[in-house]
Amino acid sequence: MEKLRKRFTLHEMVLAGAFLLIFLIGACSNENFLSIRNILSLFQQMSEMGIMAMGLTIVIITGGMDLSAGTTMGLCAVTSGLCLTKGLGVVPSLIISLGVAVLCGAMNAVLVAIIRIPPMIATLGTQMFFLGAALVLSKGNSISGIPESFYFLGQAKIFGMPLQMLLLFGLAIFLMIMLRNTVTGQHIYALGNNMKAALFSGIRTTHVLFYSYIMCSVMCCIAGNIQVSRVATARADMGSAFLMTCISAVVLGGTSINGGNGGIVGTVVGIMIFAMIGNIMNLVGISSFWQQLATGSILVLVVVFNRMIEMQKYKVKSRKV
């Protein structure tokens, strides 16, 4: 037990325990839970939320927040949907959609890094702006008639595994390496620990914030295009329902809401926990309203738990002093 405490934090051990507990509950509650079909379907459905949550993880580690992530996903989905239905090819449509994502991220970064508006307020404003832009472009309607050539992103399988699941884990590995083994990743953590200290140490904080918010928007764009491909429809509100679950998964995964701590692995595990809870409830026939209640309850409990850990650490430090 002592070796485990030295190698893993208390939060990581609790997270692993929660994952195993929910997995066992699922296995015992319904015989279909462990079927290959259900497991692949689970990963297929959680991929969009997982990719968005990983983007949010980067921003939250800097000590920021992006409440516009859901509407960024919707705007990028509408953009690619319109381009595809107007006759543009798959590649040009994806490039234009990614361009819109970069502009969304840059707008957030300008407000946060240059004008110095608090991230919650800045991204709350851009949340409504991006949603309005998506509604104007789509005229408030769903965009159907997506060409079949675009279906590969959300419906294709490689060696029997959904392509979006492979994209999820591929992006997770890329972001893990970026955060752990690159200068940019170290700077992202430095900003979250102490913005002023990072600035005085020579870190280009504005550049790091631009990178973080743009990366978050690009991840939302990828998630949006996967969903458009999967359901063959684009809507302005596509990502709006994902936002709170994604933030909850990031916090559940161990990323501090104050910044400076966290990682991609915890976020992926957090998303898997929420996905399993939803899947178990669907298998046993529990209403989706209870799923929302469960998500909110878990978020509150995790925040309280993290706060208790921080207070305990503070007491230990005070005793040493």
Short description:
This protein has helices at residues 2-7, 10-29, 36-61, 69-85, 90-114, 119-138, 152-155, 163-181, 183-193, 195-200, 205-231, 243-252, 264-284, 288-320; strands at 157-158, 161-162. By secondary structure, it is mainly α. The mean pLDDT is 88.
Mean pLDDT: 88
Distance between the termini: 27 Å
Q: Which structural class matches the secondary elements?
A: mainly alpha
Tally of helical segments: 14
One letter per element, helices H and strands E, the order comes to HHHHHHHEEHHHHHHH
Helix content: over 70%
Largest sheet: 2 strands, antiparallel
Strand order of the largest sheet: 1-2
Tell the overall outline.
Answer: globular
Number of strands: 2
Task: Name the beta content range.
Answer: under 5%
Unreliable spans: none
Rounded to an integer in angstroms, the radius of gyration calculated over CA atoms is 20 Å
What does this structure look like?
There is one protein chain. This protein has 321 residues and is mainly alpha-helical. The protein has 14 helices and 2 strands; from the N terminus they run H-H-H-H-H-H-H-E-E-H-H-H-H-H-H-H. Helix 12 runs parallel beside helix 14 (288-320). It starts with a helix and ends with a helix.
Notable characteristics:
321 residues, mainly alpha, 14 helices, 2 strands, 76% helix
Question: How do the strands and helices of this protein lay out in sequence?
Answer:
Elements: H1 2-7, H2 10-29, H3 36-61, H4 69-85, H5 90-114, H6 119-138, H7 152-155, E1 157-158, E2 161-162, H8 163-181, H9 183-193, H10 195-200, H11 205-231, H12 243-252, H13 264-284, H14 288-320
Antiparallel strand pairs: 1-2
Helix pairs in contact: 2-13, 3-8, 3-9, 3-11, 3-12, 3-13, 4-5, 4-6, 4-11, 5-6, 5-11, 8-9, 9-11, 12-13, 12-14, 13-14
